[in-house]
Amino acid sequence: MFILRTSNMRVISRGASTNSLRLVMPRVQVVQRTHLVRLNSTEIKPNPRPVRKEKELNPQRDWDAKVIKYDDLKPKTESPAPNSWLIDVREPDEVMQGMIPSAVNIPLTILPESLNASPATFREKFGFEKPGKDQEVTFYCRSGMRSSSASDIAKRNGYINILNYKGSWLDWVEREGTAKA
């Protein structure tokens, strides 16, 4: 298949006795369709988007909370300290499968507003005291993804003593042999 490209034709003169037109045909370029070539595009232009550093690509992951392992978490669940919190960030329907002993539930979907709530509003909503910004706060979820996000949310809300149980509920159940994942 061929494409015929032309520019507009120009009228050079008009015959006086006849209404004939003398036309000058413009230059015609025939290009085979399978080998279309862009004309007037021989310049190589730099990519307008600069290459971004990995840190800029994911600004929410500019730090990682300290990871706590099962062996370190287990004793904390058996005798919890009054100044430390184990927070399950799963949704209530997931919590029905079971929870790690001594944990409290604050779903990730409402965690930012909960951490910004006044202590009185927090206590009214959840039935326990709001963790202090300098108290130890450990997050877990089902598999470790949401607990990483929760750790990041807590950090951005001024909490400084944050732990992330990345093994989360699946690891706990496997090691404890209780409940169903």
UniProtKB/TrEMBL annotation:
Coiled coil location: none
The superkingdom of the source organism is Eukaryota
Q: Identify the SUPFAM superfamilies for this entry.
A: Rhodanese/Cell cycle control phosphatase (SSF52821)
Task: List the Pfam families hit by this protein, alphabetically.
Answer: Rhodanese
Signal sequence region: none
Q: Which GO terms describe its molecular function?
A: thiosulfate-cyanide sulfurtransferase activity
Q: Which residues form the Rhodanese domain?
A: 80-181
Xref: CDD domains: RHOD_HSP67B2
GO annotation, cellular component aspect? mitochondrion
Name of the protein this chain belongs to: Rhodanese-like domain-containing protein
What species was this sequence derived from?
Answer: Lentinula lateritia
